[in-house]
Amino acid sequence: MKKPQPNILIITTDQQRKDSLGCYGSDFAVTPTLDALARGGILFNRAYAANPVCSPSRVSLFTGQQVSRHGCWNIGVNTPEDTITLAHRLAHAGYATQYVGKIHFQAFHSPPELSKEHCMVPGNGWRKEIADAVEQKEALFSGPYYGFDTIEWASGHGNYGLTGHYGKWVRSQVSRKEFESYLYMKRLSESEFGGEANEWGIPKQLHNSVWTANRAIDYINKQKMESPFFLAVGFEDPHHPHALPEGYPLPVDPKKVPLPDFAARELDDKPDYFKQAHYGKANYLGDPSKKFDNRLMGQILGFDYSTVGEDDARLGRATYYSMVSLIDEQLGRIVDCLKSNNMLDNTIIIITSDHGELLGDHGLWLKGPFHYEQLLNVPLVIHWPKRLQKGRKSSALCSLVDIAPTILAATGVEYEQKSVDGIDQMPVLEGKKESVRDSVLSECVDNEYHIRLKSVITRDSKLTRHIEEKHGELYDLANDPMEKKNLWNDTASQKEKASLMCRLVDYTESIEREKRGIRTGPA
Prior knowledge:
This protein is an alpha/beta fold. Helix content is about 30%, strand content about 15%. The chain has 15 helices and 16 strands. The strands form three sheets. Strands 1, 2, 3, 4, 7, 9, 10, 11 and 12 form a nine-stranded mixed sheet that branches. A hairpin with a 5-residue loop joins strand 15 and strand 16. Helix 8 (about 210-220) runs parallel beside helix 11 (about 310-340). It is globular, with a radius of gyration of 22 Å. The N and C termini lie far apart (about 55 Å).
């Protein structure tokens, strides 16, 4: 008798750091569900995002391809619609496929005719645009979408995330006047810097994290045991704006949250835009008349991080970590649903984030073209009681591009190996090997002509090459995990630098190789 195929549940958060979870050693985080899943599965300490911002990293996770291969190189760029994803492959093998929550395979700050995930066009009229959109009677696009049979989506975050199926549902629960009140937040911090704490009047039962869990639970309850499913769940939080629903207590005490880790002059040996971002001057680089083309991605207009006070930093951070607690609470509901349907043992649960958040470390907040560990080294917990040993912590290098080939290996679904860049991590998951990688690649293109960087990361080192620039970064992660000392020009480190540069070239060539056309004759 053929063994039943495992269900697949991929849960992504947005902009979540490892230190937001108790299972990663945080003594202030409140995440009992995720901690229990880590105890019942395997936790990766060295999992890396393929890119430090949303869309490129998400597409890499679901395709198994590096950013320079799949083509979605920045937020605001649509993924080519003929892109083959994990959902296509599993659907072909008989899986039912569904995505709920934030997807971000296409731009959401663009005109609706250019994106199926349109949220709103930035400008002074965005609140009215969102409020008008949820009043429209025609049905929202619900798939098929990049291999998923059906989708229930939301784009944006917080008060500008009341969009898509989520926004329409909220509007169905309240009057237009009440809905419009949710499009505003009140700043709790003294200063505005992107990572500040806000007060938001939306009730908990209407919050996006609760809605996302509700839709996941509804989908699971409708599944039949004889047919496997692939469910992707995308939580919008803890991406800024940092805010909790009305009346929700702050689980994380601001007094217990450490201040940002930033040493005076640590940006002196970095590319100029690091300091410009620190002082709020890196929003529009180059020609100011071409604002969209010259914006430093992931940063917000004019925020001078050097002026952020300690109380504001602690409160902004505590609110961020508390947003993770709310997600954890909702994740507990999803796990309970799997248990009640007798599905937990044979469901592969993968929990990760598209990238991290700087939270003031290195003098920077939010995200952007910075390859610091706080942005690239993301949480990754995999839980599959039927096959995996419990309570393991792995220091094996892993890239989010490994998720797709690992799932395909676990389910026995055949695929052409050269169609992905990731590596099957099942030997690590099953304890047969300590590691299947000796390095990972992360890439970032802020602008096609202006800020481009590639990093190769090994067990002990990280090298970042800033393309067509004289400067670069080299860190001894074993002895300098906070990346304070740039060894790029250090005489004693030149051999290691040369070795890592060779690895970087090897990565680039391997991707180019798979993109080459077919030779049909000798000449």
